[in-house]
Structure prediction request, 141 residues.
Amino acid sequence: MATQRTLSIIKPDAVAKNAIGDIIARFEKAGLQVVAAKMLKLDDDKAGGFYAEHKERPFFKDLVGFMTSGPVVVQVLEGQDAIAKNRELMGATNPKEAAPGTIRADFAETIDANAVHGSDSPESAEREIAYFFGADEICSR
Ligand code: RTP
Ligand code: MG
Prediction:
């Protein structure tokens, strides 16, 4: 399996719970490396553009409202099969359906406030990484 990069966001609910360190530790223990990271507060345009694929969905307004409700931590994770590995560590979108031991099972309460985002394909990873980071902000190790 090839080395990949994926975009991860620790969402406002998990930041508010002081779970940044616990979540990043899970990535590192699973063999993923943080090669870029920043904390920021998204505005409506930045959050809406990020989730543009969901623009017509009924939950879009709530999703943007939630993602702008507090600071987030955005990271690029690098490692073998990083995209699928991150999605596995995250668990299902709805924390009630997330496998035990996954980040969403352990830190998320609802489908709206579900602790983390992860790119879902190589194409979305490429777009999402470029959405938040310039090439000079990514430090391969
Ligand atoms: P994410 O993009 O945040 O990593 O989540 P995901 O791939 O697991 O799920 P996705 O289908 O991309 O949906 C993005 C976010 O929208 C909210 N959502 N609500 N009420 C609903 O049916 C519903 N479906 C999705 C979730 O907060 C999800 O993380
Ligand atoms: Mg998604």
Notes: Residues 122-132 form the longest helix (11 residues). Residues 54, 59, 63, 93, 111-112, 114, 117-118, 120 surround ribavirin triphosphate (ligand 1) (CB under 6 Å). The helical segments are 12-16, 20-29, 44-50, 60-67, 82-90, 103-107, 122-132.
